[in-house]
Amino acid sequence: MTTDNRLDHRDQTETERNARRVHNVSAEPRSPGAPQAPPGLPEQGVVVSADRPAIRLTGLTKSFGGAANAVDGIDLDIAEGEFFSMLGPSGSGKTTVLRLIAGFEQPTAGTVSLLGEDVTDRAPFDRDVNTVFQDYALFPHMSVLDNVAYGLRVRGVSRRERHAQARQALETVRLGGFGDRKPGQLSGGQRQRVALARATVVRPKVLLLDEPLGALDLKLREQMQVELKELQRELGITFIFVTHDQEEALTLSDRIAVFNEGRIEQLGTPAEIYDRPLSPFVAAFVGTSNIFPDALSRAVLGRGGMHALRPEKVTVGRADAVPSTQRTAPGTLAEVIYVGSTSRLIVDLDAGMRIIALEQNDAHRVTEDERGSRVSVGWQDSDIVALEKATADTTDPATDPATDTATDSAPKLTTDTAR
């Protein structure tokens, strides 16, 4: 037995069990009727009809024995080739839904279908999905090339063919010259690309991404967002992306499901979610909103019900300088916060609430920065959003009860520990 063969044998006996969990692939034959790839070639995506989405969740429920369900009756269709994000705070159920799709958890009730086939009772390795984890789960003793090729090796692809496909996958993620390195010799962003190459080289029908950019610094995360979207568009694979980062979800997604307490609070495109939130939770969690409860809506906006107004839609100027085309409300400038390209202005309205405005820091800015000065706040009626899902006893989720100051409702979370 050659040294290379001995190493291959040792690697397989040491890591095969973990690799099957990480890659969701199996050396055993697939179930009868499942599509098979020609020997030595990755499986290609199939065209699905509108009534057979890539993923269909029906009545999906998961309970861990507590008073409330972690996932509570989710009905959801995800189209083939879609970049779909599940967004929510810790404990909202998004990660549990991802694990139910992957097969790492079994539902208490409901079904998971992949390309029209019920896979609810199948093991993870018998579902044509792959998962990219936040910690990458790379094998430190293997080269980058062997890490990427591992899923193909478990599928029985020959050494020459799997290395050829692995090199091509590394080229796709711009790591063509890194195949001989070990994971420990790479940066965090490079290890993330290796994990993506390893997950996509076997051409899964669906790729699940569990907060894959959470461990990266801001600049690298922004760079990887662009590369991730380009990779998804190039491969045409359905991506299901879990994140607590609103900007990340808005940047990457074709559609977003906003999760809250085990349910989908709102489902729509990034523009629909941001510009037309349906509930106080969505308005406050996705970005920053000025939330007007019914009484203040009547006093300030001249309409009943609960409403939201984004800070960038608000203008602040001298009491006599706001255009007459806008609705206005008088107030006092309480604080000015410089944040680089913009400034955040906090105004105490005479009507009894604080409102946030966002202004560009350019030569045309006319707001005086003197705290305590009298100002006039303006907005267009068309920018007011009625929160249709608000109830009579709904409190303002963007208000700090101690100061009555509009704030972000926990959008700056750093980790999602809930499972």
TrEMBL record:
UniProtKB keywords: ATP-binding, Nucleotide-binding, Transport
Entry's Gene Ontology molecular function annotations: ATP binding; ATP hydrolysis activity; transmembrane transporter activity
Cited InterPro entries: AAA+_ATPase, ABC_SmlMolc_Importer, ABC_transporter-like_ATP-bd, ABC_transporter-like_CS, Mo/tungstate-bd_C_term_dom, P-loop_NTPase, Transp-assoc_OB_typ2
Keyword Nucleotide-binding belongs to the record: yes
Example of a GO cellular component annotation carried by this entry: ATP-binding cassette (ABC) transporter complex
Chain spans, region Disordered: 1-45, 389-419
Stored SUPFAM superfamilies: MOP-like, P-loop containing nucleoside triphosphate hydrolases
PROSITE patterns with a match to the protein in the record: ABC_TRANSPORTER_1, ABC_TRANSPORTER_2
SMART domains named among the record's database cross-references: AAA (SM00382)
Low complexity bias: start-end ranges: 392-408
Compositional bias of kind Basic and acidic residues: 1-19
Alphabetical list of Pfam families matching this protein: ABC_tran (PF00005), TOBE_2 (PF08402)
Positions of the ABC transporter domain: 55-286
Keyword Nucleotide-binding: yes
Name of the featured protein: ABC transporter ATP-binding protein
